[in-house]
Write a structure and sequence with these properties.
Blueprint lengths: L1 H9 L9 H14 L2 H14 L4 H14 L2 H14 L4 H13 L3 H14 L2 H8 L6 H4 L3 H4 L3
Helix pairs in contact: 1-2, 2-3, 3-4, 4-5, 5-6, 6-7, 7-8
Length: 147
């Protein structure tokens, strides 16, 4: 289906190809195809055009992590956090990155804050491979929803 989606996107008129909606659809197709460099490149451009929309920063970091490095993705999200200090997804992803870097106290604080803002992250955190070491090395209250 991703090939069909790509083919449909290629039928779009040239003057419409840089519209936000078209580029957003491309990002979704490229995520499915695991074309991480393209995900990051498009999302980076969208974050410059629409800096007030957090989703582009998140997609940029998502692509950067897979195509380039965790450090680059972390830098992107740290910049995004300045713009969106209460964005649970940004906080959660930074928590994951901190855990991968073995900064368990930082990871715990970030993930706790994400869960405070959006309770859906609690179940996600328990199953997330990036956070596996957090349960052994940090405050386990995240698992139980305590503070």
């Amino acid at each position: 289906m991703k090939d069909d989606a790509h083919d449909e996107l290629e039928k779009i008129e040239w003057e419409d190809r840089l519209k936000k909606e078209v580029l957003s659809a491309r990002i979704q197709v490229y995520i499915k195809a695991k074309y991480w460099e393209l995900v990051g490149a498009i999302a980076k451009q969208l974050s410059k055009r629409f800096p007030e929309e957090s989703e582009w920063w998140l997609y940029w970091a998502y692509g950067a992590r897979r195509a380039e490095s965790l450090d680059l993705a972390k830098g992107i999200l740290l910049e995004a956090l300045k713009r969106f200090p209460d964005n649970a997804t940004i906080l959660y992803n930074l928590g994951c990155y901190a855990c991968v870097d073995e900064s368990y106290d930082v990871a715990s604080a970030l993930v706790k804050r994400a869960i405070e803002l959006d309770k859906d992250f609690q179940a996600l955190a328990i199953a997330d491979k990036d956070l596996a070491n957090l349960w052994e090395n940090a405050d386990a209250s995240l698992q139980h929803g305590h503070e």
